[in-house]
């Protein structure tokens, strides 16, 4: 029998709790429960811990405020509500939603005896493109079995996303970035309270994937947050990417306000009106804006330069920030979602002409690149359509090339830029590329082999709870062991090498040296040298800036900039 067990009597539904773990935090006492891990030990689990006051009513959109203390013992045995996503179609029947959603969860080994060193801490920031996601999606069991069992305290956090997290007036009335400020408040809670769970506040690592990885970089750069942790693990995401920044955030924010009848010349009036609208009205407004202003990527509410939490340029922030040791990772076929999906009827017949047409209409558009679009299209076609193309290339070849160009645009270019900046400013950085493929991939380009965006989730945390179980083959088990051992060593020591693997960091002589993560991992000296040369030497600087930041090139002026450089 577990030390903390629930015995239910039906129909009275009376339960008896035996020896549940407790934690005394600055805000009050918590009571959690134990989970029997696969190694025979018990984890102590505390769910639904509030780390800030509810951001409701007049506090909507605003920076989070500290939680008020409570009296007595608070039950921490179920997940708190998830934060509302940007769109209705992202709502999950398996989750409960509320604006009062600023909760975190702590999964910890049994408390050490007094005088013994505390456990290192891992803070997990979920993905979702800053539009959706929840700390409860992966439950707590895999965190316990894979990480807590190895002597690590794991913390997963909710933070506001979509319009609640990133709506802004674009000025001092409401600067934006509430979601990033939520993350900072969660880290502050960890810093102040993690010792109550056996964790060491001076040994904190952030792990993020996608927008969670971009968040980890943003937190590393901001002086409001970068003193709260020591290390980061960023996978398939960067704050230097247009997926993490959008020049249309302010524009889209004001369009939403206009749609619900709130837009006013005075920003404070706009803000106060938006605070009174209900969630359904705001979600409907997103659909209306996207229908009235059709744009390839729809409404985008992202982190912005608010001249407070984030100030431009990011490179200057990095030059001033403390050196934070990091692991940065990519998958070799990450771009599983294209700007415009390819009809299944075209998949088996996808040709050079189809790829050329896709590049012109969806990748290098005039609306994004102005007068430079035609020149950029030509360069993309030469490199991704015609380069080394077999005389009778089939659809698989051109689908793979489409995936390659989208992977470069969305992930590789910005992330390699981040790595280069970290090298320049002497941040200790370990780079990996996951090339190992698995049957779990459900990419729309089914015929293309490779590791896809979010593959790591299954190996680190298991599949989302709503997805059921996935069977691992022998190579999957080996790969998972290698991945976990490396990350566990990094969390504990700051170096991912272990007895079966030497993982070398990048340096001035090995600027893109990386670990090829697979069941048989090995170091590789250069990452995709042909592609790196194309993006750094063939593609003009102005275009690269647009790719990284999402900033559109002015139709009138961009052509002269491009050709002056050439």
Low-confidence stretches: 5-17, 441-453, 552-566
| Relative helix content | 25-40%
Computed structural class:
alpha/beta
Radius of gyration, CA atoms, in whole angstroms: 24 Å
Question: What does the model show?
Answer:
The chain has 566 residues and is α/β, with parallel strands linked by helices. It folds into two domains: 267 residues, Alpha/Beta hydrolase fold, catalytic domain (Rossmann fold); 227 residues, 3-Layer(aba) Sandwich (Rossmann fold). Helices cover 35% and strands 15% of the residues. The chain is built from 18 helices and 16 strands. The strands form three sheets. An eleven-stranded mixed β-sheet has the order 5-6-8-10-9-11-12-13-14-15-16, with helices on both faces. A three-stranded mixed β-sheet has the order 3-4-7, with no helix packed on it. Strand 11, helix 4 and strand 12 form a beta-alpha-beta unit. Helix 10 packs antiparallel against helix 12 and helix 13 packs across helix 17. The termini are far apart. InterPro entries: AB_hydrolase_fold (IPR029058), CarbesteraseB (IPR002018), Neuroligin/BSAL (IPR051093). Pfam families: COesterase. This is Gut esterase 1. Belongs to the type-B carboxylesterase/lipase family.
